[in-house]
Amino acid sequence: MDIYFLGTGAGMPTTRRNVSSMALRLYEERGSFWMFDCGEGTQHQVLRSPLKLGKCEFIFITHLHGDHLFGLPGLLSSRAYQGGVTPLTVFGPKGLKKFIHTVFAVSETQLPYELRIKEIEPGIIWSDDQFTVTALPLEHRVLSYGYRVQEKDRPGKLKFELLQQKGIPPGPMYGKLKRGEDIELPNGELVFAASVVGAPIPGRSVAILGDTRPCDNIVRLARNVDLLVHEATFLEGKKENAHDFGHSTAKQAATAAKTAQAKKLALTHFSSRYKEDEVMEELLGEAREVFPNTVLADEHAIITTT
Ligand SMILES: [Zn+2]
Ligand SMILES: [Zn+2]
């Protein structure tokens, strides 16, 4: 589980940064990736990355501002040319359906795969036996969601030495024990799963936020997460601008990470005015003063949950 950043700029693309998009890669967990936001030009960023659109399982749109959305129709169309035949679900705020249907109706676009569009309400928006995704509204100029992806706890590891001592050969009985089922050996001895399986492995979690100024739901979504991805449009000196436009400073993002007791913070969505490396260092420094385990996202950077 890691995040591949495709676009880390705010508002409009620059030669250094494209607009918002990232991929949560779950190759080991489920052989796919989930995209969060799809600003204009995202498909070009994908072409310059190791990502294959055919492996994109879900797209989560945080809000309907162009720098998070305008790349979607093109990317959905191109997916078909890149081996994308499996169904794809796009989640996002109300209005998403109208946007996609209008663009595809006007351009007479037909997709050869099934596209499902889910306009979400706050709460758990999707779940299976591996992951739960929760969405809560943030504070921006339009309805903007933050998402929390929570992996479920995984069964503990089998204690192989103990199993061998008991003379249990590898095979179907191992599977039963791992699933928590007790077994009876041919000699009548009972083997309890709890005695030969280690403690459950805690599921990992990430919170990925849309544009927002500081608000309580950030902390709710990011409580104890392994990784919080938070916008940091401005330096602290532009705090008033941040407030007026519904954005955050790097320090505000760090404060949220600290309050939520997140383990790691990745900052993204930087104002196009911040071009020089020194300014970005300053922005990082402001965040690290409050929350030391902070990193800056960059184009094509991979940020892990540890
Ligand atoms: Zn934005
Ligand atoms: Zn926005």
From TrEMBL:
Residues that, per the record, bind Zn(2+) 2: 67-68, 211, 269
Keywords linked to the UniProt accession: Endonuclease, Hydrolase, Metal-binding, Nuclease, tRNA processing, Zinc
Cofactor notes: Binds 2 Zn(2+) ions.
E.C. code: 3.1.26.11
Active site as annotated: 67 (proton acceptor)
Cross-referenced InterPro entries: Metallo-B-lactamas, RibonucZ/Hydroxyglut_hydro, RNase_Z/BN
Gene3D superfamilies: Ribonuclease Z/Hydroxyacylglutathione hydrolase-like
Domain of life: Bacteria
Keyword tRNA processing: yes
Family according to the record: Belongs to the RNase Z family.
Function field: Zinc phosphodiesterase, which displays some tRNA 3'-processing endonuclease activity. Probably involved in tRNA maturation, by removing a 3'-trailer from precursor tRNA.
Subunit and interaction comment: Homodimer.
PANTHER family per record: ZINC PHOSPHODIESTERASE ELAC PROTEIN 1
Protein name: Ribonuclease Z
Organism in which the protein naturally occurs: Paenibacillus apiarius
Underlying gene: rnz
